[in-house]
């Protein structure tokens, strides 16, 4: 039994939603899942397992920031989870985006120490699972929900003293800033698991736009529905037992056969 998630293998579903705020984990479980049971409360890291549209899904709070969150990611992996989906908030970096917009993080610039330590400070591009990206984009389309798909940056500093840092990231096409995805993507790549981050823009670091709590709540619901739909769709199509098998999706089948040396992504 891991130290921080006091659960046995099998207590968590194959797919886990990962909000930073443990109380958000409880809210998601109580609002969106059926047959819910609490599977962890150690250190206030609330975790739940239930079903969504009849399929098993878990939701686990991670706390803020990569070092603590990575303990949770590691222990979920020890417990057998193979699809790890961060759902959270981010600071917007593109002027054309607005508070409440949904961001799907294709990749995450590792401006945090955890992600870089995981690869011994060697250059590495933390990248989401194609399967989960595809699932989220498809789910958003079904809902008629606009999303932005692209690179984000994961930072150690919520209060960043570096003058002009946000503008420089913005000018290089980075969509948003948050604090966990790069470590999640890096760890998942190292151990052959699938990872994704979906975030709503909660504050805008370029336009300084402000919005109401009610408006933010609406897109929060869309984000959770997209994540849950993607989780169960990918879990059905790519069962945990197939981890380590070849990546085969229709559009890229021939590409995959000839070039895939990283079969788990
Ligand atoms: N910075 C870093 N992480 C964040 C922010 C931010 O402005 N907003 C939400 N998560």
Q: How would you describe this protein?
A:
- There is one protein chain.
- The chain has 265 residues and is an alpha/beta fold.
- The chain has eight helices and nine strands.
- The protein has helices at 22-32, 66-78, 113-118, 130-143, 165-171, 181-191, 213-237, 253-259, and strands spanning 15-18, 34-40, 47-52, 55-60, 83-92, 102-111, 148-155, 176-178, 194-204.
- α4 (130-143) crosses α7 (213-237).
- It is globular, with a radius of gyration of 17 Å.
- The model is unreliable at 244-265 (pLDDT under 50).
- Bound molecules: hypoxanthine.
- Hypoxanthine (HPA) binds next to β5, β8 and β9.
Sequence-ordered SSE layout with sheet pairings:
Blueprint: E1 15-18, H1 22-32, E2 34-40, E3 47-52, E4 55-60, H2 66-78, E5 83-92, E6 102-111, H3 113-118, H4 130-143, E7 148-155, H5 165-171, E8 176-178, H6 181-191, E9 194-204, H7 213-237, H8 253-259
The protein binds hypoxanthine.
Strand order of the largest sheet: 5-8-7-6-9
What is the H/E order?
A: EHEEEHEEHHEHEHEHH
- Mean pLDDT, to the nearest integer, reads 91
Overall geometry: globular
First-last Cα distance: 27 Å
Beta-strand residue percentage: 15-25%
The number of E-state strands comes to: 9
Give start-end ranges of low-pLDDT stretches: 244-265
Helix content: 25-40%
């Amino acid at each position: 039994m891991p130290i921080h998630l006091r659960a046995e293998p099998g207590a968590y579903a194959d797919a886990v939603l990962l909000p930073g705020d443990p109380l958000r984990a409880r809210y998601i479980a109580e609002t969106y899942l059926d047959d819910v049971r609490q599977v962890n409360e150690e250190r206030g890291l609330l975790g739940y397992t239930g079903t969504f549209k009849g399929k098993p899904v878990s939701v686990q709070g991670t706390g803020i920031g990569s070092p603590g969150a990575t303990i949770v990611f590691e222990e979920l992996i020890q417990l057998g989870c193979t699809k790890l989906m961060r759902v959270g908030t981010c600071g917007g970096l593109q002027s054309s985006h607005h508070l409440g917009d949904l961001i799907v993080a294709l990749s995450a610039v590792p401006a945090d120490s955890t992600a870089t330590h995981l690869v011994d400070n060697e250059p590495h591009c933390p990248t989401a699972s194609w399967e989960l990206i595809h699932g989220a984009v498809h789910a958003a389309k079904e809902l008629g929900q606009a999303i932005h798909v692209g690179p984000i940056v994961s930072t150690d500093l919520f209060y960043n003293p570096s003058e002009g840092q946000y503008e420089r990231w913005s000018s290089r096409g980075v969509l948003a800033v948050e604090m966990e995805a790069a470590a999640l993507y890096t760890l998942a790549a190292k151990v052959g698991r699938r990872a994704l981050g979906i975030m709503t823009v909660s504050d805008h670091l370029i336009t300084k736009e402000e919005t109401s709590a009610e408006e933010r709540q609406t897109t929060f619901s869309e984000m959770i529905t997209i994540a849950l739909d993607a989780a169960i769709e990918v879990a059905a199509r790519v069962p945990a037992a197939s981890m380590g098998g070849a990546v085969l999706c229709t559009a890229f089948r021939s590409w995959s056969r000839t070039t895939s040396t990283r079969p788990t992504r």
